[in-house]
Protein: Syntaxin-binding protein 6
Organism: Bos taurus
Amino acid sequence: MSAKSAISKEIFAPLDERMLGAVQVKRRTKKKIPFLATGGQGEYLTYICLSVTNKKPTQASITKVKQFEGSTSFVRRSQWMLEQLRQVNGIDPNRDSAEFDLLFENAFDQWVASTASEKCTFFQILHHTCQRYLTDRKPEFINCQSKIMGGNSILHSAADSVTSAVQKASQALNERGERLGRAEEKTEDLKNSAQQFAETAHKPLRTDPSCGVTTASYCAAALLGARAWFVTAVTEETSSELWFPSPLLQPS
């Protein structure tokens, strides 16, 4: 299990919260320690985590989580509501940088992420979360690369492309369904005609005194004509119409 998965399970899940993202960080400047402070716990890893509550109305928060050397567990340290975030500083908008600053109402921290790409991902999630859950006093994002600020627009663009493709596919299927419907109607007509031919074919053979043509000859000609009509009906929608003319009816 990765460190971020473990943090989500140990720190946020028990409180019915969902972690949206996290970034491993170190301070760019050493924190001033009070003169009387003693008994430090040694080296540790620090994560800045973004989470939301599962219970409505949804509340978002930023939490600092630490993992001390030699321990497999994580400890929740400072926490701020997202409404307290005033400014997000990406430091340099012209190049990939792992450095960033977070300014809250009552705190200011200068961080460096483990990688620039991890910082970029966290910033995109943070920006999207602010746009979604904050209605007033949204934090200011300064010195951020366009790909960070445009992360949400990229998602919308991809969604629009998928929607357009689905609409085109649906239209094609509807047109295909209409063509098949017309073919089914013509096939039903052919079926009825075939039933009439079958009934006629089962009648005793007789000859028309006026021209000497037997019932069998009429049936054979009719069936050949029906075959030609059916091929035309099935292929007419594809603009490749085929026609097999019936032979001339010869008196028997």
DSSP finds five helices and eight strands in the chain. Residues 152-159, 237-252 have pLDDT under 50 and may be disordered. The two ends are 89 Å apart (CA to CA).
